[in-house]
Automatic annotation (TrEMBL):
<dbReference type="GO" id="GO:0008009">
    <property type="term" value="F:chemokine activity"/>
</dbReference>
<dbReference type="InterPro" id="IPR036048">
    <property type="entry name" value="Interleukin_8-like_sf"/>
</dbReference>
<dbReference type="GO" id="GO:0005615">
    <property type="term" value="C:extracellular space"/>
</dbReference>
<dbReference type="InterPro" id="IPR001811">
    <property type="entry name" value="Chemokine_IL8-like_dom"/>
</dbReference>
<feature type="domain" description="Chemokine interleukin-8-like">
    <location>
        <begin position="38"/>
        <end position="91"/>
    </location>
</feature>
<keyword id="KW-0732">Signal</keyword>
<dbReference type="GO" id="GO:0006955">
    <property type="term" value="P:immune response"/>
</dbReference>
<keyword id="KW-0202">Cytokine</keyword>
<dbReference type="Pfam" id="PF00048">
    <property type="entry name" value="IL8"/>
</dbReference>
<protein>
    <submittedName>
        <fullName>C-C motif chemokine 27-like</fullName>
    </submittedName>
</protein>
<feature type="signal peptide">
    <location>
        <begin position="1"/>
        <end position="34"/>
    </location>
</feature>
């Protein structure tokens, strides 16, 4: 007795569709940046003054979601710096000074 397994064209088509869907799902998962957050894992209190002057945007990373630590994420010319949350006070002082100088001119 010998058994042969032949797949019908409909089953072959279903199998191809399933493989294609799995491939597309895997591709979407690996290329989506929004799916996996980029968290700071360490912070620094020693952010140079010249970097703080160039900060374009700052946001707080909280440890109550996907990330494990609180951090101040500083965006400077396409780069991110992970600062200790206390650096926010120094950044605000510098921004106030900068704003005050701009108003005088």
């Amino acid at each position: 007795m010998s058994f042969t397994c032949s797949l019908t064209p409909a089953v072959t088509m279903d199998l191809r569709v399933m493989v294609m869907l799995l491939f597309l799902c895997a591709l979407a998962i690996t290329t989506t940046e929004g799916g996996i957050p980029k968290c700071c894992v360490t912070t620094s209190m020693d952010i140079p003054t010249n970097v703080l002057r160039k900060v374009e945007r700052a946001e707080m990373q909280r440890n109550n979601g996907a990330c494990e630590i609180n951090a101040l994420v500083l965006h400077v010319k396409g780069k991110k710096f992970c600062a200790h949350p206390k650096v926010k006070r120094k950044l605000k002082r510098m921004q106030r000074k900068k704003d005050g100088k701009q108003k005088r001119h």
